[in-house]
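#structure-requests
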Amino acid sequence: MKERQQNIESWLSKLQQESWNLELLISGFSIFLLIQASQGLKSLAISYRGNFVTNGALESVPYLFIGILQIASYVLICNLIIHIFLRGFWIGAIGLRSVQDKVSYEKLKYSDFFVKKLQKRISTLDTLLIRLDTISSVIFSFTFLIIFMLISLFFWVVWITLIIITLDAGFNFLGESWAETLEPVLGITVLALLFLGVIYLIDTLSLGFFKKFHWVSRIYYPVYRLFGYFTLAGIYRAIYYNLISRFSKNYIRLFLIIYLSVIILVPFTKLDSFQFFPDTPGDTLLDREFYDNIRPKNDRITIASIPNQLIKDGYLPLFLSYDINDNDNIIRWCEDYTPSKENLFVSGIRIRSDGFTFNNPKVKEKDPEKLRDCLANYYSIYLNDSLYNQQEFFYYEHPNMGEKGLYTVLDIEGLSRGQNTVYVRAKNFDERDSLIESTFAQIPFWIDR
């Protein structure tokens, strides 16, 4: 048993000495992947909104998860770049040590006074190498510790959301009178979880403030255990306690204050000298999203689109992106027809007397034309100030990113040369449930003929 323990310690010691190889490999590979993933996360958020209904209690959870991934990617990129820089410095110092392991002050021919000052202040290469190696390894570990803490924050929000949904569903199941009676219980539960979460966060960032006092630590321990399960903190606690016991806590607290301040404040600051280019240009902005020829790659069509801002013939193709978050409004508008699809998961698995059948999860629509008319009539098309009533819509999946929607071609032969505008307006309901029409898209184009 003792021999096995010695072998394990020897193996770990060897790994520690050679860990810089893995650190550099992982850092370089991670930076490359993260730079590629940053734009992908932005597209993921847009894609989620375009393919899933985002209402209800769980609405914020996916966006929070994507937001945490974005913050984590920025933290990783910045920290790993610093790590690679320091490791490169460390490798360069090792190379120098192989040919010059100490400073030859006599060859510098400095005065005795200055040599004595340098000998006090300039560390040896060995000391520098040890410091660089320690800092590099700590930065590498600290980076992933921050990532796991961000993931813990996400799980905490998920648990609170699930508890809210469960309690709310239970109260509603008991009946409306019980739901109203027990509603304060839901509010108190949420406030208690938020308060305990803040306590746990303060203790974590203060490096154990509530663990220092005997009776307070006894009261705090159940909270510590509970949030350990909620946030999966057990995964990174070994790294956390090793790091905070390695250095002075005052230095760590100062570093955390500066580090977190930078993470929080940087996204809300920028350098901008474009005084005559407004951040909120409104209708004066030519939005590239509306034009297929200038839309940024991997950007989804969220509203509407035409092929080009410059039109040379008498027809204008128009694509309207179908926003599934408008489902409720469309159903209220089109009262005389109910879609065959339900707003749920669709399965192609069927149980029959002779076994299971597996087919494509498709639902056959009772009347596709009627369904199309419901969606098409939800919109109104205007050319400049005139309502356009001659269009015929078709279901269409746009080749950009497979966005689903409606496609039509507008006859613009009668429009004058120069700038014109196509307006897309959609039905909506105000606070008094009165039907109103609001501008959905405003797309300027120029006729050149």
